[in-house]
């Protein structure tokens, strides 16, 4: 029986980091593995170098704010260009102090992605060569993509909600 690509990826990860895996799921045909945040860079380096995975391209890196959990997820999407496999890795950080190591040591292209994630979500990437805002003004005191602010002004009197079925 032939082993599937997802089983190969999971087996490669289990070789050294089985204790770091929190959840493995396939969402919309996309293998998603949630790992503990402490060794995320080591896990990615392992998947980069491993002969069965070779995830040597960082497609994207972003964050998601979960206010009900008081956490921020950092999501890394990796791609093996030879076998055309993709993998999503997730870590969860506390919303009051989201800190994780920089990925620029593995993927230099993570530089701007980490700056954008810092700019919009407030995630601090330790060891980053120049972690500062990239799109918002430098003296901004909030992180605008956190779900801490209402989408619209609830005190407006000039709108008619009946037009929107409310």
UniProtKB/TrEMBL annotation:
Its EC number is 7.1.1.-. It is an enzyme of class 7 (translocase). One of its GO terms (molecular function) is quinone binding. This is NADH-quinone oxidoreductase subunit C. It holds the Pfam family Complex1_30kDa. The lineage of its organism: Bacteria, Pseudomonadati, Bacteroidota, Cytophagia, Cytophagales. GO terms for cellular component: plasma membrane. It is a peripheral membrane protein. It catalyses: a quinone + NADH + 5 H(+)(in) = a quinol + NAD(+) + 4 H(+)(out). HAMAP family: NDH1_NuoC (MF_01357). Belongs to the complex I 30 kDa subunit family. NCBIfam families: NuoC_fam (TIGR01961). Its main location: membrane.
